Amino acid sequence: MTEKPCDNKITIIVPVYNEESRLISCVESLLSQTCKDIEILLVDDGSEDGSRELISSLAEKYENIQKLFLSHGEPMRARLQGVKQASSKWIGFADADDDMDSTMYESLLSAALKHDADLVLCGYHQHYPEGRTYTYKSSVSEVLLDRSKAMNMLLCGDHVEMWGPCTKLFRRRLFSEDLIAELSEVTIHHFEDLLMNYYILKKAANIVSIPQCPYHYRIRYDSTSYIGSYRDACMDGLAIREIILEDADESLRPIAKSFFLKSCTSLYSYLRARYPSNHKYCQEVLDLILKHR
Which residue range is the domain that position 211 belongs to? Predict the structure, then answer.
């Protein structure tokens, strides 16, 4: 059944951690959306710069901007606390150092209502400081996916636009209290969004992929994604993939296992080029391979 017009409001949740110099650009791109029934929820995750003061001033200036202040915690927590506070039927996420084309949420919502979908995803542009840009399309045309097809896209590892939350529009009801509680216990710092999308897809009925690429993901070498070693980030990724493998039902287990082992093998090859085979880093990945092979 199609949502009533009054139910078409979208809450965009923006976690903020020390983003005083970049937040304005993100907020301006959200304020310029052609879809006007939007609530912007800025969730400060214990910033130590002037982000909190900036958020307060923005919330005072614009009636559709709300604020939420937290102590610094796990990356997933800020998004989930935002979901709990959101007043809308639809949820979107944005990173505070990224920006969006003005038609992004109009396009996502239009596809959601057209297909009575629970989740809509789009593509994105990935911009590097030195000027390189890569484009990732979720599809070449508007495509309606069932749960099985979408889950296979998520787990095969070839559709990276399926992993993150910022190129998607979610029905609020997908975030049940049980799901929020379970995800709130995740203490992994990288790839936690992959796990969130896995649990969401388990509950979603109709999923739509649209060909537009309105999200602009700005790569920064000082961002959370790039701080810390490659090995530590990949080990977090393996931990998430192992959780998914152990949770997957019989129909998904083969592709979840392939996804996990492919990632293990890739990291093992990277580590073996730098360390002897008996090094603890190599051994812990080899143990995972032997455990699940």
Answer: 5-218
Q: Which residue has the tokens 């003005």?
A: 102
Q: Judge contact between 250 and 148, C-beta under 8 A.
A: no
Give the confidence band of 87 by pLDDT, cuts at 50, 70, 90: confident
d(C-alpha 120, C-alpha 159), whole Å: 15
3-state secondary structure (DSSP) of residue 40: strand
Q: Give the C-alpha distances (Å, rounded to integers) separating 37 from 11, 40, 57, 85, 212.
A: 9, 10, 21, 17, 21
CATH number at residue 124: 3.90.550.10
Q: pLDDT tens-digit profile of 29-49? A: 999 999 989 999 999 999 999
* pLDDT-based confidence at residue 98 (cuts at 50, 70, 90): very high
Using CA atoms, how far apart are residues 43 and 57, in angstroms rounded to an integer?
Answer: 14
pLDDT at residue 3 greater than cutoff 50: no
Strand partners, 39: 11
